[in-house]
Amino acid sequence: MQKILVSLPDDLAVKMKRMIPPKQRSKIIAGMLAAEINRREDALYQCACEIEEDNALNSEMSDWEATVGDGIEPESW
User: Would you list the domain boundaries of the chain?
Assistant: First the structure.
């Protein structure tokens, strides 16, 4: 478990302290963050799926394979 520092607008912090008991705040915030992260991951996954199904893009990318194995090695430092 990690503790992090988060800044909130004053009015939101006051409302949170008024409406949410102290021992429930972390759980509620963690749940909201998890939901937002899942939403963003799902959107990214859907975007990747759409790209994979894009025939024009896949055709163009097949031309890129000529640059794979071009002898340029990544820096090893």
Answer: 22-55
